[in-house]
Structure formats: C-alpha cells, structure tokens
C-alpha cells in the first residue's frame, strides 16, 4: 500500500491517500472537532458506459440507464435492504449516477465504523435476480417520468442532441421507459462484474478520527480481486456540432431557450481538465455574469430576466458551456447572448475584473469544504477525475489574463454553437 | 458533547426583536439570518415584489451589477433576500454570509462590510430623486414577477403544491400565495412597496440568528444601532387552526406525465416539548424518510411511487403527504396512506420502527453541530416554539417516548383533503 499526504494548508485541510495493490484508492481526511463523519464511494462508471468489451474480447451492449438501474438494485442489499441497515444506524445516505461515475455515500454522527462496513459491503456484494429487477421497474419508471415532466431537463438533453452527433451524453442517465422495461438481471450483473471492481473504486472518508486507524480498517474492507480487463467502447464523435438548432414542443407558457458552446475536443482527465474547467467558469463569469455591463444591458432591455443561468460541464472527452433562460422572444434572446459573447471575445477580459472574480472564486473554494461530508465529496470528485485534491487553488492563482482570453476564443466560437428551444405546444 | 449541550446566547434587543448567537470558530464562513415574520395577507404581493426590487441596488451601489461586484470584492460573500410561506406567516429573510478572517490576507476582516451591505439593502434602496425607489426598476421587476406568476404552471411539482394548499387552506391565510394574483401585482405602486419596506424595518417581529465565526459584541452594537426602532414591533402572526369535516377530494387536470398526489391532515398544534417530540417521532414512522411506512409499503412493496413522504407544519397544525404516482394508482395510494395511519393509531408502532426513528432523530440532532444553516434553522425554530431545548437535551429524553405516545399523537390526525393533479383521463 502506497500512502501520500496532501497538505491543503491554505484551506486548513490535509488528506492522506493510499493506493492498494488491487488498484483501489482510499482517501482519509481528519476534521477534528466535528460531530459527523462521512464516507463516499465512487466508481468511474456511469450512464454513458453502455458498450464495453470483456477480457476475452466479448462485446456487450446493455440498455440505456443500466448504471442507474444497478445503483437502485445495490440499495436492495443481499440479505437485508440497505435502507434498513443504514436506518438502524440512523445514518443519512444516498447514491447518484452521473454520465461517467456512480457515487454512494453516508453521513453519520455516531456509527462511523458500522456505516463504513455497510457501505463497502453493499457496493461489493449485491444480489441481482430477475424478481428483484422486475420489481424495481415500476419505481424507476416513476422516477424517469418525474424528470420527463421538467422542461429544463428535456431542454438540456435536446441541447445535448444538438451539440453531439453520437456521444452517449445525448441519452438521459435514467434512460427511456422502454429501455428500463427491457433491462434484465443478466445485463446488470454484467455491468457489476465489469465495473464494480477494486481497481475502479475510490473511497473518501472524513471525520474526527485517527486517519491511520481508519485507513487500516477501510483497506481491510475493500476486496482484492484483479482488474477484469474491461474496456469501455465509445462511438467516434466528430469535432463539429450535430445541429445548429433543434426545437421541440411541450406544455410550457413561454419558450425555454438554451445556447450551447461546445469545445472541439476533450482534454482528458487530470490537471488539464481542472484548468479547463476553472478557466471556462471564469470566462463565463467575466463575459455575462451579473457583475458585467453586458448582463446589465440585456437585463435592462428585458432580453434576459431572472431565469437566465449559465454553467460549464466537462469530463474526459467532452466539454461545453450552457447559457439558458425563458423568454417570449427566443430570437432576441439568442441574438443578445451571442452578441454579448462575441463582444467579450473581441474586447477580452480586463485585469481588474479578473482579480475580482478570482477573489470570489477563491472564497467559494475555501468555504466549499466546510464540513466532513463536503470535504469527503470534494476529495472523491478530484480523485475520480485523476486530479489532485485541493488543486483548484493553485490553478486559480496561476491563471493569467491571456489564458482567459485564449480560453474565451476557443470556447465561444460561434461555429460550435448549438441552440435548443422548447416551445409551447 | 459541549456543542450540542449549549443553547444559543439569547439577547432581547427590543420587544419583538431577538438576537440568538451561536459562535463557532470551526466554520469557515460566518452567517447571520434575519427573519421578519408577517401575515400572509394583502401586503404579501408587495413584500414579494420588494424582495425582487431591493437586490437591484442601493444608493452606494446603485445597480445589481455594482452590488454583485461588491460581493465579489468581498471574497464571494453572500446575500440573499427572499420570502417564503411558513403556515399562515409570510416570512421575509435576509441571509448574509462571509469568509472567516483566518482565510483572508492578514489584518483583513469583512464581516462589518457585509453586515453594512445587508443593512443598506433594506434601508437605503436605489431611488429616483424624491421617490422611495426607482420607477424604472420597479416597473421592470413588476413585469418579471408577472411573468413568474404566469409561468408557474411550467414547474409541475411547484404548481401542484400551490394548488393543493389553495384547496386545503381556502379561507385561511396559508391558502394565499406570497406573490398573490396578477391583478394584485399589477396594482402595486411605489407607495405600496415603501409601506411594506417600512413595516419590515420598524414593525415586523424580527429574529436574528448568527452562527459561526461571528463577533457577538460587534453584532449587538450594529443591530442595536440600526434595527431598534422607536415604534413597538408587532407580535407574531396567529396561526389559524381548523377542524375538518368530511374528507374532501379534488382532482385537477394538467399536462403532466407523472401525476402529483397530496394528502392533507389537520393536527393539533403541540403545546409542550413532550407533545412535539411524540408528534415528530410518529411522523417519522409514517413517512419521514426511507424508514417510514409510506416509503416501505407504497414504494418498496407496491412500486407505486419513486418518492413519497410526509411533512409536518406543527405551528399551523398540518401534516401533509406528497408523492409522484401514476394517476391510475390514485385510489390505491390514498387508501394505503389511510390504512397506514389507522394501523399506527390502533396498533402503535413496532419496536424496530421506533428504534430507527430514535436513531434518525439522534443522528440529525448530532449532525446539527456541523451545519451552520441547519443550526441556525434549529435555533430559530426552538425560539418560535418557545421550547429552547438543546439538541443534547432532546437526545437524552428521546427514549421516554414509546409506541403508546406515538399512537396517541397519531390519533389526533384528521384527514381533510386529498388532491391529485394528473393528465386528462388518468385517475382511478
């Protein structure tokens, strides 16, 4: 077992990270004086991983939504429901399926070790049967339908279909109801065997405890099987957008509009991705946040209102910015936003503005890991993306004015803009 | 654990104006929460519009842009001003938070600047010469509020919540939305807004809760200087209690994929900590989380819902159940809710259920020590209830309540209204 310590002095935190022989990573961060402790398990396996090959070359293609379905089934436990096991311990817990990762967590005030045992037991030892899978379909169908009722959710995936030709993030994490209905126990078992293995697992723990003792305890609970040799298969994605505009209708009172700005290619994982994410977020803040004249002008003209929002999303092989809002006049909205972005690219960021948004981002990073749960979650996210925990501050401090201007020119290129509109039916 | 045993330091700064402080140097951010409790009444639309107008600027920072720049300069300090419905109360809250001094360059401190900014927001709004506000800003925000009201239907869950409360509490203040009708918003003038603002500053009951790295003495001095008004502040709004008659059922049609189910019960408002604890435990056993019977029976055993749970509004005297279901399962879900409540009333609760409820409450109370927001809400709630219990005090007495007390608490739940929002033709 190799152990290293990362000192996040500016944040007042420290974390020890061990890599076991099986390939699993365990991060332990002590939070003296805090009452709760938290445990997060993450696997680098998400909703987009529906095609993969096994060591013997067999290629599998499972239904959309399989990772999410599997997450549901893991909570059923083997002998006893996970709800009951955590319930008896009084712990808070949940799980979530993203495009490229699946996470499970607990937070407990007085039963840390017992909760840790439950967490590592149910994610490594499920019982998946046809009966259990059939019974879950009604529940997942209700969850899928709940999301389908949300115009923002519909619009985001319409935008994904406009931005990307074949990339699996075009599909919602839960999958369509028809895909849920055709999922079998064999599909889910195959996904579990392929991805729920120690080499693909990250465990992140935080609380008022002795890190050495906890590391020893946790290491003993993680299995030691060898990597199964699974290879994920993704379709080849062109560097261009799929559609300049897609429209759909839904029962809404006024149009919901999205403008997506796609990066040509991803930059992989690790520090390049962290840098790209931070630079891109700062670019959006500098271009069109509340503190900009551009936003003020559009707001005062009634082109933007309080429904306007923007963010940047990225992973290994995709990244894009989304700017969205509701409006009676979609063309005016889109033209206004496009012109504001073009203006920012032309003028470039100003030094005074950069220092101000950098300062705000710094405050947000420092205070974003206030509790054991937030700290464990943050460390998990970093490790799943092959990034150094607490690395955001160093990147933030190193960014230069010209870096941001360059990032703006790359990201805010109208040749890779897509529009998605949900219009009243 | 000392943190859980301690009560916040309480200061009555004037009649109807209380400060509760829980200093805690572990947290990286300090926070102060101002709660102005008003009635949900004809003034509510003005207060809602005010919550959109005030963040548009102060005289010193005369636009939303300038205010945003200022908060960025203050290391991303937060200020949020908004309103919500708490039973028959329209609660207006200003929340401020800032980075602790130890994370700032040596010698810097920003808490006073953030407090001043928050106060300026309320006391010195950007205005035209000789007027209380900018007419342009008010007209723009009025339009925006009207658009929000018209587009409420687009958020199906929020729309169903609103329609349910409208029917459940018709004729009571809680049946009114905080934003009112389009007509009420259109009729608002600068004078209405100014009257609402002055009411908050001088007359509305005010509770301030501060948690984290806060300078208590400086905070008291600041609040005494700015918020102690010559006029006496009002007492808190009275909550209207209602005894239901026969069970009412309301079905409305909307373009939804998943039907939204709500069930409202009237409960007596607890008058003692003992009644309150028994009620909380009984609700937890019914539907207060994944250990609740509703989750187990309706989701896990019958696969009829993805999420289902029950919530208490103790001061108002309401217990509500909500779920997203297939409309064709309506009768089955309604009957199952009634069956589960009847079982608790007649048969009490099982030992295992009780243990899980104890464990959940213990964990939640212990966890408060790590959550500034949770702690602030807990402190404010205990203050409003007049109970002033420390989390540890509650933990120590939790096991005094057994199956009998929980069944007794549940016996007072009276079904009032079942509501379903579903697509045309989709109801059993």
Secondary-structure-derived class of chain A: alpha+beta
User: In what range is the share of β-strand residues of chain A?
Assistant: 15-25%
- Which structural class should the secondary elements of chain B be placed in? alpha+beta
- The H/E string of chain A reads EEEEEEHHEEHHHHHEHEEEHHEEHHHHHE
Question: Biggest sheet of chain A: strands, sense, closure?
Answer: 7 strands, mixed
Low-confidence sequence ranges of chain A: none
Radius of gyration based on Cα positions of chain B? 23 Å
Describe this structure in words.
The complex is a heterodimer of chains A (425) and B (428). By secondary structure, chain A is α+β, with helices and mostly antiparallel strands. Chain A folds into two domains: 2-232, Cytochrome Bc1 Complex, Chain A, domain 1, CATH 3.30.830; 245-424, Cytochrome Bc1 Complex, Chain A, domain 1, CATH 3.30.830.10. In chain A, 42% of the residues lie in helices and 22% in strands. Chain A has 15 helices and 15 strands. Chain A has helices spanning 66-74, 82-89, 112-122, 130-148, 151-163, 177-181, 185-195, 211-221, 271-288, 293-300, 330-347, 351-367, 372-384, 391-398, 401-411, and strands spanning 2-8, 13-19, 25-30, 37-43, 51-53, 59-61, 92-97, 102-108, 201-207, 231-232, 245-250, 256-262, 309-315, 318-326, 417-424. Chain A has a seven-stranded mixed sheet with strand order 1-2-3-9-4-8-7, with helices on both faces. In chain A, strands 11-15-12-14-13 form a five-stranded mixed sheet, with helices on both faces. In chain A, helix 3 runs parallel beside helix 8 (211-221). The radius of gyration of chain A is 23 Å and the shape is globular. With 428 residues, chain B is an alpha+beta fold. In chain B, 43% of the residues lie in helices and 21% in strands. Chain B has helices spanning 2-5, 44-53, 64-73, 111-123, 135-150, 156-168, 182-186, 190-202, 216-227, 273-287, 293-301, 330-347, 351-367, 372-385, 391-397, 403-411; strands at residues 9-14, 17-23, 29-39, 78-86, 89-99, 206-212, 248-253, 259-266, 305-313, 318-325, 414-422. A six-stranded mixed sheet of chain B has the order 1-2-6-3-5-4, sandwiched between helices. Chain B has a five-stranded mixed sheet with strand order 7-11-8-10-9, sandwiched between helices. In chain B, helix 10 (273-287) packs across helix 13 (351-367). Chains A and B meet through helix 2, helix 4, helix 10 and helix 12 of A and helix 3, helix 5, helix 11, strand 9 and helix 13 of B.
């Amino acid at each position: 077992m190799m152990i290293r310590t990362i000192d996040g002095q500016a944040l007042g935190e420290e974390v020890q990270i061990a890599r076991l022989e099986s390939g699993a990573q365990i991060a332990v961060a002590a939070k003296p004086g805090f009452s709760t402790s938290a445990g997060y398990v993450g696997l680098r396996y998400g909703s987009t991983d529906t095609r993969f090959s096994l060591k013997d070359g067999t290629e599998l293609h499972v239904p959309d939504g399989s990772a999410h379905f599997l997450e549901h089934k893991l909570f059923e436990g083997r002998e006893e429901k996970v709800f009951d096991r955590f319930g008896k311990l009084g712990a808070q817990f949940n799980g979530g399926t993203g495009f490229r990762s699946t996470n499970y967590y607990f937070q407990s005030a007085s039963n840390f070790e017992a909760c840790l045992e439950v967490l590592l037991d149910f994610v490594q030892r499920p019982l998946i049967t046809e009966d259990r899978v059939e019974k879950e379909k009604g529940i997942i169908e209700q969850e899928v339908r709940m999301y389908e009722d949300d115009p923002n959710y519909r619009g985001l995936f319409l935008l994904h279909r406009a931005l990307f030709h074949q990339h699996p993030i075009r599909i919602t994490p839960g999958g369509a109801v028809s895909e849920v209905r055709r999922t079998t126990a064999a599909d889910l078992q195959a996904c579990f065997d392929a991805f729920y293995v120690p080499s693909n697992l990250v465990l992140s723990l935080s609380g008022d405890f002795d890190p050495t003792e906890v590391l020893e305890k946790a290491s003993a609970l993680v299995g030691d099987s060898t990597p199964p040799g699974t290879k994920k298969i993704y379709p080849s994605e062109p560097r261009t957008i799929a559609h300049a505009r897609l429209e759909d209708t839904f029962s809404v009172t006024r149009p919901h509009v999205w403008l997506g700005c796609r990066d040509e290619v991803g930059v992989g994982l690790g520090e390049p991705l962290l840098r790209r994410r931070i630079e891109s977020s700062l670019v959006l803040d500098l271009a069109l946040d509340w503190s900009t004249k551009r936003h003020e002008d559009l707001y005062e003209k009634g082109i933007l209102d309080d429904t306007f929002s923007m963010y940047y999303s990225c992973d290994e092989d995709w990244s894009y910015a989304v700017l969205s809002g509701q409006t009676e006049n979609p063309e005016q909205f889109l033209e206004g936003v496009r012109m504001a972005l073009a203006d920012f690219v032309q003028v470039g960021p100003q030094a005074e503005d950069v220092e101000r948004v950098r300062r705000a981002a710094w405050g947000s990073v420092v205070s974003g890991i206030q509790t054991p749960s937030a700290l464990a979650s943050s460390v998990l996210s970093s490790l799943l993306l092959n990034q150094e925990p607490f690395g955001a501050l160093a990147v933030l401090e190193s960014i230069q004015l010209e870096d941001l201007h360059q990032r703006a020119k790359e990201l805010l290129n109208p040749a890779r803009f897509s529009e998605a509109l949900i219009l009243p039916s | 654990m000392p943190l859980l045993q301690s009560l916040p330091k309480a200061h009555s700064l004037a009649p109807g104006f209380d400060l509760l402080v829980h200093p805690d140097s572990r947290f990286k951010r300090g926070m102060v929460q101002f709660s102005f409790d008003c009635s949900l009444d004809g003034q509510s639309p003005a207060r809602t519009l005010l919550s959109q107008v005030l963040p548009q600027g102060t005289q010193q920072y005369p636009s939303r842009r300038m205010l945003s720049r200022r908060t960025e300069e203050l290391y991303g300090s937060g200020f949020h001003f908004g309103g919500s419905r708490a039973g028959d109360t329209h609660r207006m809250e200003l929340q401020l938070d800032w980075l602790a001094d130890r994370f700032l360059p040596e010698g810097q401190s920003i808490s006073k600047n953030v407090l001043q900014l928050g106060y300026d927001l309320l006391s010195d709004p950007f205005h035209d010469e000789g007027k209380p506000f900018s007419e342009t800003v008010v007209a723009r925000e009025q339009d925006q509020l009207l658009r929000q009201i018209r587009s409420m239907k687009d958020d199906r869950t929020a729309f169903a919540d609103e329609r349910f409360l409208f029917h459940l509490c018709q004729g009571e203040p809680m049946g009114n939305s905080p934003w009112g009708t389009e007509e009420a918003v259109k009729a608002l003038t600068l004078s209405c807004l100014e009257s609402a603002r002055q009411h908050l500053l001088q007359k509305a009951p005010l509770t301030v809760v501060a948690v984290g790295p806060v300078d208590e003495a400086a905070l008291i001095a600041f609040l005494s200087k700015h918020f102690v008004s010559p006029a006496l502040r009002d007492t808190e709004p009275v909550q209207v209690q209602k005894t239901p008659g026969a069970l009412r059922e309301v079905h409305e049609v909307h373009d939804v994929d998943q039907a939204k189910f709500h069930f409202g019960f009237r409960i007596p408002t607890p008058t003692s900590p003992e009644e309150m604890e028994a009620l909380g435990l009984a609700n937890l056993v019914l539907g207060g989380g994944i250990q609740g019977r509703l989750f187990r029976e309706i989701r896990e055993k019958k696969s009829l819902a993805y999420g289902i749970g029950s919530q208490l509004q103790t001061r108002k005297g309401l217990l509500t159940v909500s779920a997203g279901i297939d409309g064709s399962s309506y009768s089955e879900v309604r009957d199952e809710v009634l069956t589960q409540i009847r079982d608790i009333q007649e048969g009490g609760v099982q030992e295992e259920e009780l243990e899980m409820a104890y464990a959940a409450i213990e964990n939640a109370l212990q966890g408060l020590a790590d959550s500034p927001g949770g702690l602030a809400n807990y402190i404010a709630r205990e203050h409003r209830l007049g109970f002033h219990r420390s989390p540890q005090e509650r933990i120590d007495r939790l096991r005094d309540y057994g199956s009998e007390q929980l069944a007794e608490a549940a016996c007072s739940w009276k079904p009032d209204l079942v509501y379903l929002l579903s697509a045309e033709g989709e109801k059993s």
